[in-house]
Amino acid sequence: MKRVLCFIYIIMLACSANAQKTIDFATKFMRECKGDSILQCVAVSPKMMDMMTRQQNQNHNERMVQAIQKLKSAQIITANINGEYYFAQAEILMKRNAKRFKMSKSYEDDNKKGVFYSRQLKNGQTVELVLLHVSDDKLVIVNLTGDIDDEFVNMLSNNVAGKTSQQITRKQAGRHT
């Protein structure tokens, strides 16, 4: 019995250590900017996301609702001034974590730009999606975790980037270099 309890304890410690290693991007970014009163971070709980998808009298896209229900967490970071500066800082943090996050899409037009980064498991499943967006020197970072499929990423990028922005996927960017 003692061996079983010891074995369970060791497994719990290993799981706890692994969970601590996988801190999401928004948490890392806010730790780097600790004490900065310009940045605001809001976490949306799974319960709140579920409530949003269940609201009556909403014209929901059924696929979007299904995708949102697969999310575990959402964090939104905003800055109403110095957006370009914070965008650059977020990209530096992404580059320092290049083994973990890969750029998947980017967009840009006259007054806005953004980049989507994803973190995937070895089997190719996307488990974290980060959008860095700046418009009129205002920053928005959206960090989603959960079971994220390509269709959801495409829907989101089309809604955020808009029809007028030039969109570049990682595959297209590779062809131009």
Highlighted features:
177 residues; alpha+beta; seven-stranded antiparallel beta sheet; 7 strands; 44% helix; disordered C terminus
Which SSEs are present, and which pair or pack?
Blueprint: H1 2-21, H2 25-32, E1 40-44, H3 46-54, H4 62-69, E2 71-79, H5 83-96, E3 102-108, E4 112-120, E5 126-135, E6 138-148, H6 150-161, E7 166-169, H7 170-176
Antiparallel strand pairs: 1-2, 2-6, 3-4, 3-7, 4-5, 5-6
Treating each run of at least 4 consecutive H or I residues as one helix, how many helices?
7
Task: Please write the string of helix (H) and strand (E) elements.
Answer: HHEHHEHEEEEHEH
Distance between the termini: 61 Å
Net shape: globular
Strand content: 25-35%
Number of strands: 7
Helix coverage percent of residues?
40-55%
Structural class by SSE content: alpha+beta
Mean pLDDT: 80
Spatial extent as radius of gyration? 18 Å
Strand order of the largest sheet: 1-2-6-5-4-3-7
Give unreliable regions as ranges.
Answer: 15-20, 170-177
Biggest sheet statistics: 7 strands, antiparallel
What is this entry, summarized?
With 177 residues, the protein is an alpha+beta fold.
Describe this structure in words.
Helices cover 44% and strands 31% of the residues. It has helices at 2-21, 25-32, 46-54, 62-69, 83-96, 150-161, 170-176, and strands spanning 40-44, 71-79, 102-108, 112-120, 126-135, 138-148, 166-169. Strands 1-2-6-5-4-3-7 form a seven-stranded antiparallel sheet, with helices on both faces. The protein is globular and about 35 Å long. Mean pLDDT is 80; it is low at 15-20 and 170-177.
